[in-house]
Amino acid sequence: MAYLKVALGFLVTAFLSATVSLAHPGLGFGWGGVGAPGGQSGAPSYGLFPQFYQFSCPQAEDIVISVLEMAIAKEPRMAASLLRLHFHDCFVQGCDASILLDNSATIVSEKNSLPNRNSVRGFEVIDEIKAKLEEACPQTVSCADILAMAARGSTVLSGGPSWELPLGRRDSKTASLSTSNNNIPPPNSTLQNLITLFQRQGLDEVDLVALSGGHTIGVARCATFKQRLYNQNGNNLPDQTLERTYYYGLKSVCPKSGGDNNISPLDFGSPVKFDNLYFKLILWGKGLLNSDEVLLTGNVGNTMELVKAYAKDENLFFKQFAKSMIKMGNISPLTAFNGEVRKNCRLVN
Ligand code: HEM
Ligand SMILES: *[C@@H]1O[C@H](CO)[C@@H](O)[C@H](O)[C@H]1NC(C)=O
């Protein structure tokens, strides 16, 4: 009995100190240091761990999901847009919500980079999540973690896999327009170019192919695939890998001149369902972007086999997508005393 009392006393003390340290994110690295859970597939954990808000904002996940449910019910494409935001955040200075900063006296916004301008969207949904979180737990949940939670929630609500999400990222006080232009791969990339740009982030070919599977939802503008229809190799001919009827359909959406903002689904068979049809379409010459097609035909490394494997086995794709999302979400986060928790995702404090 005495032993039990001592043990219980210890538990209560441990609980209280954990509560105190987590109520002050940034002081909580007694928990988040080396050996904290969070890393998977041998990836380093960088101090992120799934229970980061367990005591400081236990309702965080529910708040995120409830806003996502409404936003995606209203417009199913929003799931795709939010998944992409996390990707475009992580490839520029790491997953630090730099993409969310608007132009200001000290910030040149990444929103105007080549890959982002007139293209990335979903900022109002992030604002709504942030507003609700600020009400429930002021200055506790970072915008970078909101992006990561929104990406996972959007995947799940679209029918895709879930994963245990490491948390504890903090927000940058800077943005980088030039890094956004240089690090995010363009849609007409060669396979070698894609591999190089993913390697720069510590991501390998397996990650490249699995994460490209994010194109199982969402749409792209004519401007991003026009080159394939009219002048793929500078010889005024279309991309020969395009299946014929698909090619004619695309031409009707995307004329040779004009129509740059017309949109076409990345996975025309199930554009709001997260599944493995994206990979089957690539096998059939019906992938939309050059960067999708070259995963099969680019003839570098092992990517062709991976496309075939994910086309054949949806479960394999889902498992690898989850692993690779965790890896992408771990790209150089700010932790401990670095960065800040923004009050408004669009502005530094
Ligand atoms: C492999 C290199 C990649 C390239 C070259 C690429 C390129 C593109 C392009 C050009 C668009 C259309 C943008 C527009 O028309 O405005 C797009 C959309 C999208 N991308 Fe990627 N992407 C890549 C990787 C990824 C990754 C890793 C993810 C997430 C895991 C992702 C998720 C999405 C989603 C969901 C959309 C649709 C967004 C919407 O409908 O709003 N992409 N991508
Ligand atoms: C990709 O498109 C850009 C802009 O249109 C162009 O300058 C570049 O040459 C293209 N790259 C390839 C590999 O076709």
Short recap of the structure:
The record marks 84 as: Transition state stabilizer. Residues 1-23 form the signal peptide. The protein has 349 residues and is an all-alpha fold.
Q: Order of SSEs, N→C?
A: HHHHHHHHHEHHEHHHH
Task: Report the CATH C-level class of the domain at 60-182.
Answer: Mainly Alpha
CATH topology of the domain at 60-182: Peroxidase, domain 1
Binned, the helix content reads: 40-55%
The number of helical elements comes to 15
Mean pLDDT: 90
Class derived from helix and strand content = mainly alpha
Uncertain residue segments? 1-45
Net shape: globular
Distance between the termini: 51 Å
Q: Ligands in the structure?
A: protoporphyrin IX containing FE, 2-acetamido-2-deoxy-beta-D-glucopyranose
Q: Count of DSSP E strands?
A: 2
Order of neighbouring strands in the sheet with most strands: 1-2
Family: Belongs to the peroxidase family. Ascorbate peroxidase subfamily. Belongs to the peroxidase family. Classical plant (class III) peroxidase subfamily.
Binding site for Ca(2+) 2: 216, 267, 275
Catalytic activity: 2 a phenolic donor + H2O2 = 2 a phenolic radical donor + 2 H2O
GO cellular component, one term: plant-type cell wall
Q: How is this structure best described in words?
A:
This protein is mainly α. Among the domains are: 123 residues, Peroxidase, domain 1 (Orthogonal Bundle); 120 residues, Peroxidase, domain 2. The protein has a two-stranded antiparallel ribbon. Bound molecules: protoporphyrin IX containing FE (HEM) and 2-acetamido-2-deoxy-beta-D-glucopyranose. 2-acetamido-2-deoxy-beta-D-glucopyranose binds next to loops.
